[in-house]
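3.2 Worked example (two chains)
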Amino acid sequence: MATRNKTLLKVIILGDTSVGKTSLMNQYVNRKFSNQYKATIGADFLTKEVMVDDRIVTMQVCMTNSVSSKKAQQWCQSKNNMPYFETSAKEGKNVEQAFQTIARNALAQESEVELYNEFPDQIKLSGEGSRNNGGDSCAC
């Protein structure tokens, strides 16, 4: 039976209020840009399935307003020069490339990322096994 393996990657977009985190997330997941957004209270997330080097990857993109871009850039540099991207959700500039790079880097570093299987294409049930022939006891 054929099954498909999926990898779940959680991506967090950090930044100050009103810098375009929701716009970036919507541009990546929905390929849409809007000038009309309400302030996000707490956190928000969307998911997108993508193919990365012949693997199905579910990207769970979450955003929260807690870190300035300068602090984020410094943090990335302190973590073995983790990539830092200048993007434009309005123009779609570097959006897809940024998320593809994030996914590739995460998959390259995985030691034991949780894989989960979808239901197999077919489920075969056999008629063999114990059967209850009218008694009160269960054959389980």
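3.2.1 Second chain
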Amino acid sequence: MKVRTTNASAADLLSAWKRHTRTALAATLEHRHLSAQKHYRHAQQLGLQLLNAEPGDIADDDRVAAFVVAHLNLADAFAAAGQPGSSSECLHEVQQTLMSLLQQGCASPSLSLAIYRHLPQLLAARAGHGAAAPHAAAGVCASTSAFPLTHPASDRQSCLASFESVHSSLH
């Protein structure tokens, strides 16, 4: 289900996503957890809009990255605020959305490849959050046992930093 957007509106969505992500990152560094969560949630909504939009001049890889990074950052914000259950739910939600796109066959080949490129970092984050709070993640992880939950990739200090170096339009 693609939302028709003009190239300018897709670019505007990405610009707004970057702005909210940077604001949230600053709030995170200042230990303002509620403010960070608010901005990460907004970035999450913008990421979903980007994922569902016609790509225009925005690469599929960057659209998926925005969606995944928003969820990873929000999950980290929940964990930092002592909300491991919310963190696990957030990671579960992004995995389910991406897996649904792949399983339903509604993703273009380019979008499918982008999803597969970003799954390892998502799965590593799920494993990391699950290891940090195994009881909070147990119920959520049990429902996705058909998907691997671990990956050798690990130490993710900053989702934004790790994705910005790879995705030129996220700068």
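3.3 Remarks
The helical segments are 7-29, 33-52, 60-80, 84-104, 109-132, 134-142, 159-164.
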